[in-house]
Design goal:
The protein is α+β, with helices and mostly antiparallel strands. It folds into two domains: 6-74, Arc Repressor Mutant, subunit A; 85-184, Alpha-Beta Plaits (2-Layer Sandwich), CATH 3.30.70. Helices cover 46% and strands 22% of the residues. It contains five helices and eight strands; from the N terminus they run H-H-H-E-E-H-E-E-E-E-H-E-E. The strands form three sheets. The chain has a four-stranded antiparallel beta sheet with strand order 3-1-2-7. A two-stranded antiparallel ribbon has the order 4-5. The longest helix has 34 residues, at 6-39. The radius of gyration is 19 Å and the shape is globular. The termini are far apart. The relative contact order is 0.13.
Length: 188
């Protein structure tokens, strides 16, 4: 009767459910941080996008501790009392695609190692400052900074699939806020 342990079945089901919850909590926390950052306030009465994000958090049964942590991080405060930094990582992905990865973190070393790990597992590599940023132009709209590729790079189907896996891995990192790429969806 090997493999028919009741505890083993419970453990496997709980592990899968916890992984799903963790992913949802991470996405909602990111929405809360962005809403606070863009709205400039952690007061839901004066910030409608924050109110919407908090409603999503309550619907997902997100713990109050996680909500408070996301609010503090959005206001630029960390749990340890340290400062929150905005970091821009430059990288190259499959097929020579340039990537700009914006992150907001209280621990640059942890975030850089997480980004580096996600890149190396998905045929990408972290590059030095200025190596990929020249392929993008800065665009400022309504006080927010974004990047647009100067020369979009068409990708073949095989590289596109690997790039999608890379982008998914990067989006799962809690501190990563935005990812810009030079890839287009057309084939060459």
């Amino acid at each position: 009767m090997a493999g028919h342990s009741k505890w083993n079945n419970i453990k496997n089901k709980k592990g899968a459910a916890d992984a799903k919850k963790g992913k949802v909590f991470g996405q909602v926390a990111k929405q809360i941080r962005i809403a606070v950052k863009e709205g400039g306030s952690d007061d839901p009465a004066s910030n409608p996008s924050l109110r919407l994000a908090l409603d999503k958090a309550k619907a997902a049964n997100m713990p109050r501790v996680n909500i408070d942590r996301a609010l503090r991080k959005g206001m630029g405060k960390s749990d340890s009392g340290g400062s929150i930094q905005e970091v821009l990582y430059e990288a190259f992905g499959p097929g020579g695609v340039a990537l700009l990865i914006e992150a907001v973190t209280d621990n640059v070393n942890r975030t850089s190692s997480e980004v580096k790990f996600a890149l190396t597992r998905n045929q990408g590599s972290l590059s030095g400052p200025g190596s990929a940023q020249f392929l993008f132009q800065k665009i400022t709209e309504a006080g927010t900074l974004s990047y647009e590729p100067i020369q979009p790079l068409p990708l073949e189907q095989e590289h596109r699939e690997v790039l999608e896996a890379l982008l998914d891995a990067l989006k799962e990192i809690e501190d990563v806020e935005e990812i810009y790429t030079t890839a287009t969806h057309e084939t060459a």
